[in-house]
Specification:
The complex is a heterodimer of chains A (321) and B (592).
Chain A (H helix, E strand, L loop, with lengths): L1 H26 L6 H6 L5 H10 L6 H13 L5 E2 L4 E2 H36 L4 H14 L3 H15 L14 H4 L5 H27 L2 H8 L4 H13 L1 H24 L5 H10 L3 H29 L14
Antiparallel strand pairs in A: 1-2
Helix pairs in contact in A: 1-14, 5-6, 5-9, 5-12, 5-14, 6-9, 7-9, 7-12, 9-11, 9-12, 10-11, 12-13, 12-14, 13-14
Chain B lengths: L4 H16 L19 E6 L19 H11 L5 E4 L2 E5 L9 E3 L4 E5 L13 H14 L15 E8 L2 E6 L5 H8 L8 H4 L15 H15 L18 E6 L5 E5 L13 E6 L3 H10 L5 E4 L7 H6 L2 E6 L3 E7 L7 H4 L2 H9 L3 H6 L23 H5 L6 H10 L2 E2 L7 E2 L2 H4 L10 E7 L3 H15 L4 E7 L1 H7 L10 E3 L3 E3 L26 H12 L5 H10 L3 E3 L5 E6 L2 E2 L16 E2 L2
Parallel strand pairs in B: 1-10, 16-17, 16-18
Antiparallel strand pairs in B: 2-3, 4-5, 5-7, 6-7, 8-9, 9-10, 11-21, 12-21, 13-18, 13-19, 13-20, 14-15, 22-23
Helix pairs in contact in B: 3-6, 10-13, 17-18
The chains are: A mainly alpha (321), B alpha+beta (592).
């Protein structure tokens, strides 16, 4: 296991470095460069030259990348010349908000998807299973932004049940005005519920055909006990793996929710950085997301091993018999 | 099989509780709770219009309306406040100083401060003015509003003539109107008694009186201004002479001001908190307006003009906010191939005659716009002449065609016209030269996109073929910068020029030969002379604007408003809106 973890960590580091190299190269291929874009129509040529020098943009690209990388290793993610703030500080302010949004959405999704998925498996092909499947497919095929707009239209604009925007101000407002978080969380959760439900249903159906289930039934175990006492742990394993793989998807969902609900998290930070040629911020966010994605994937593998003792990582060899 | 009711019911309750349990209370404002006591007015900041620089001596990247007019000026007042009753004129009531007096052939200026105090109780003095001048002088190349040749380059010396008075001796005569509006209105006294230091723990001194010291002080203040997370808590920014003190600031642009109890200017301060709330998209802002009255002062995105009625029923009244600007797009006179064609005044006038501004206002601008035919803003018509307002080259396609024919062009409507008689086409235009141009415009702006499509069609009527391409604003603005020889042909970044910090619209920055923002690379000795007279002579803007309205150095387009404001009917005192785009919430009040 230790060897496996070391190997995976090494691979993850290589992936992260490659991602940053690609993004760094691509963003500097954008025409025009950031100086005129940032300084605007008032800027004189000397203003532009000063800006480029001040931000190291007048140096060769490999040199710029190396400087950035060495600074990152020292904990300095650079300075956003667009937002007038260090990238580290920006991430520190925005990450908790996105983490909260994503975390609450996933939690809600699991709380709903697990029982529904098990229920569907237990009532396979019956009218309630078909009805839920129809709803789930509808949700799964609905773009998140459209879902968000529908929620706003019906729950905020027409019925004034929830605010149309997320809480404003500092992070504490997320708790002091939690009602304003409901629609953003719902938007992301509904889409994730749709996906998770399908996986849990399929996984539970597999489990229901297993010998241990038959054995449990023959010993008189009820349906509830079978579903939650025997099947749940095995059926949920794929979802745990899915969580790690889904992290980028969830983050993209938060980007949409953040934009529609005016919630200043990391997703929105990334989007704005991309549209304003804010290179340091763009790279900072990508680095964090890349690290989160590979770490998420790694953690999912570990969790999978914990949940399913049959899984053993043996350095690429077949599991021991 | 039995339905797994018990446990799923618990899960459903837990999950549902997250949602349903929260539906019991009516919708409440989402502003931070710090503003819970005292009346709070909330203003919506549009996408990308969030403040992020507090030091009034700001560097280029932060030179914006959001930073200057809608953030800094709330706490730090300039010597001369521009904007009175919706007009771009000096407002004596809100100015820190009495109107200046000019002498010695307009080369000496005397300024006397009115009685104002800093929030720490000390008076605003001429020392606070010299502090600002010294920092500007020593660091001018880093400061956004510095223009070579203008203040402080045109300042020979200054003399403090008393605690509240100062005399400026200039390098030569100036136009008093220009100097007051475009130079003195930028001077913002800053608290020397608390800011003249080189570190946070360092002692207060007179460091600014040496150049090296002024650089150190500026670097310190700039560094402090670059730690925006501390804006709300840094004691530096708590010494203000304006009506508002920063109470909370978030890096996303969320700003909460608290009334400055020691403000010594005229105000009622019926509002104790003023919140500027950032919005990520126009749609998000509109949704909030439609879903309840949590924003007191918002805007209706022009593309959503149809929602006007819905907002009225939510308790908003509409008011168009005109900014003090002009809209145009540019030729590149320095393009080696098509530049000679653009250099012909008759050709530019013919092109202007093909632009149907009224149709653009009715169509792409959804009725929210006004015509603009010259270099001086016509709304409000404070400085515009009737000649410019009417426009010497209004929409007249037949005239455009006849002008081109009269100058040797073989005009082929809906085709490509060519120069048939080069001696008549103009200097540098070769036989067979085609009226076929590339025009790049800023993407992501629907009215601009529609206007450009309309222009292509209009120009085709005279056989002028326009090849449209769109790119992000950043790309357009970067690729169409002033140059000596470059390949771009025509460019429209989707705006023009906003006379905000320099409200006297002389054109010295955009139409004078070699000026930093002369994107068209336009050059005319006559225009240079007329511009110079508005800056250093005593001429009014009439001759200059009439000449350029006729000359068409750029193609004029109708002006869209800064925004279509939606103001809660409970909010009073917000009208008329300043064309300089400043905000004075100290004059507002809330009812109900």
């Amino acid at each position: 296991m230790t060897g496996y973890l070391l190997r995976r960590t090494g691979q993850a580091l290589v992936v992260v470095v490659f991602v940053t190299m690609i993004v760094f190269g691509l963003e500097h291929l954008l025409p025009g460069g950031p100086a005129r874009a940032i300084l605007g129509v008032h800027a004189t040529p000397s203003n532009i030259a000063a800006f480029n020098k001040q931000n190291g943009l007048d140096r060769p690209l490999p040199q710029q990348y190396w400087t950035w990388l060495t600074q990152v290793l020292q904990g300095n993610f650079g300075f956003s010349y667009v937002l007038n703030e260090s990238v580290r500080s920006l991430l520190a302010q925005r990450l908790p908000k996105t983490a909260f949004l994503a975390g609450a959405s996933v939690l809600l999704a699991l709380l709903v998807a697990v029982p529904i998925g098990l229920l569907q498996a237990a009532r396979r092909n019956r009218p309630d299973d078909v009805a839920v499947t129809t709803v789930v497919f509808a949700l799964y095929s609905t773009p998140a932004f459209w879902l968000a707009l529908l929620l706003i239209e019906f729950l905020a604009v027409r019925n004034h049940l929830f605010p149309a925007e997320a809480p404003q101000g500092n992070f504490d407002a997320v708790f002091s005005d939690f009602r304003a978080m409901v629609l953003p969380i719902l938007t992301i959760a509904l889409v994730i519920i749709a996906a998770f439900t399908r996986y849990i249903r399929a996984s539970a159906l597999d489990q229901l055909t297993m010998d241990y289930v038959r054995m449990a039934r023959s010993k008189g175990a009820g349906q509830t006990r079978i579903l939650y006492g025997h099947i749940l742990r095995n059926a949920i394993s794929p979802v745990v793996t899915l969580l790690g793989v889904y992290l980028p998807f969830i983050l993209s969902g938060t980007l949409i929710a953040e934009e529609v609900f005016n919630y200043p998290g990391v997703g929105l930070l990334f989007f704005n950085a991309a549209t304003t040629q804010d290179y340091p911020t763009l790279l900072g966010v990508i680095l964090v997301v890349a690290v989160a994605s590979v770490v998420g994937s790694l953690l999912a593998d570990i969790a999978y091993a914990v949940l399913d003792p049959r899984v053993r990582y043996t350095g690429g060899r077949s599991p021991a018999r | 099989m039995r339905y797994p009711r018990p446990r799923s019911a618990v899960a459903a309750l837990v999950a549902g509780g997250l949602v349903a349990g929260l539906v019991t209370n009516p919708v409440a404002p989402t502003v931070a709770s710090a503003a819970s006591s005292g009346a709070t007015a909330t203003y919506a900041e549009g996408p990308g219009a969030t403040p992020n620089y507090i030091l009034p001596l700001l560097t280029g990247a932060y030179y914006s309306v959001a930073n200057i007019e809608q953030f800094q000026r709330l706490s730090y007042r300039s010597l001369y406040w521009i904007g009175e009753q919706g007009k771009p004129v000096v407002n004596p009531t809100l100015s820190l100083a009495n109107l200046p007096t000019y002498s010695d052939n307009n080369s000496v200026v005397n300024i006397t401060l009115r009685k104002y105090n800093w929030s720490d109780g000390t008076p605003v003095t001429s020392r606070d003015i010299t502090f600002w001048i010294n920092l500007l002088e020593a660091n001018k190349k880093d400061i956004a509003f510095y223009i070579p040749g203008e203040f402080p380059d045109n300042l020979k010396s200054y003399k403090v003539t008393g605690p509240e008075s100062i005399q400026l001796t200039l390098t030569g005569p100036v136009n008093p109107h220009w100097f007051t509006y475009d130079q003195l209105s930028q001077i913002t006294p800053i608290p020397q008694q608390t800011w003249d230091r080189t570190s946070a723990s360092g002692a207060i001194g007179n460091y600014d009186e040496s150049k090296a010291g002024a650089v150190q002080v500026f670097n310190f203040l700039t560094a402090q201004s670059k730690t925006i997370a501390t804006y709300g808590t840094n004691p530096l920014w708590q010494t203000v002479d304006g009506p508002w003190k920063l109470n909370q600031y978030q890096s996303d642009g969320y700003v909460q001001f608290k009334a400055n109890p020691a403000y010594s200017g005229p105000d009622t301060h019926a509002i104790q908190y003023f919140v500027e709330e950032p919005f990520t998209t126009d749609t998000a802002e509109l949704d909030v307006l439609r879903s309840g009255n949590t924003i007191d002062y918002g805007y209706l995105p022009p593309q959503d003009a149809a929602q006007s009625g819905a907002l009225k029923s939510e308790g908003y009244s509409q008011s168009v906010w005109w900014d003090w600007g002009i809209t145009f797009f540019v030729f590149n006179f320095h393009n080696p191939t098509v530049g000679p064609i653009f250099a012909q005044a008759y050709f530019r006038q013919a092109m202007q005659s093909l632009i149907d501004e009224q149709a653009f206002i009715k169509g792409p601008l959804n009725g929210f716009g006004h015509t603009d035919y010259g270099p001086v803003p016509s709304q409000p018509a404070t400085f515009a002449t009737p000649y410019e307002i009417k426009g010497p080259w209004p929409y007249d396609p037949a005239k455009a065609v006849s002008m081109l024919k009269a100058h040797g062009w073989d005009v082929r409507p809906n085709g490509v016209s060519t120069c048939a008689k080069p001696t008549e086409c103009g200097a540098g235009v070769k036989a067979g030269a085609k009226l076929d141009f590339n025009l790049a415009y800023g993407s992501g702006n629907l009215p601009v996109s529609e206007e450009m499509q309309g222009l292509k069609s209009d120009f085709a009527a005279a056989g002028i073929d326009i090849n449209l391409s769109s790119a992000p604003f950043d790309t357009i603005i970067s690729e169409s910068a002033p140059c000596t020889s470059c390949s771009w042909e025509m460019s429209n970044w989707g705006g023009g020029w906003l006379f905000g910090v320099d409200p006297y619209p002389t054109g010295d920055q955009i139409f004078a030969t070699g000026s930093g923002s002369n994107f068209a690379n336009y050059s005319s000795a006559t225009a240079d002379k007329l511009i110079d007279e508005t800056v250093h002579g005593t001429a009014s803007l009439a001759a200059y604007q009439n000449y350029l309205a006729d000359e068409i150095p750029v193609l004029w387009l109708p002006q869209a408003p800064f925004q279509i404001s939606e103001i809660s009917t409970k909010l009073h005192g917000a009208l008329p809106q300043s064309p300089i785009l400043s905000l004075t919430p100290e004059d507002w009040s809330l009812s109900g």
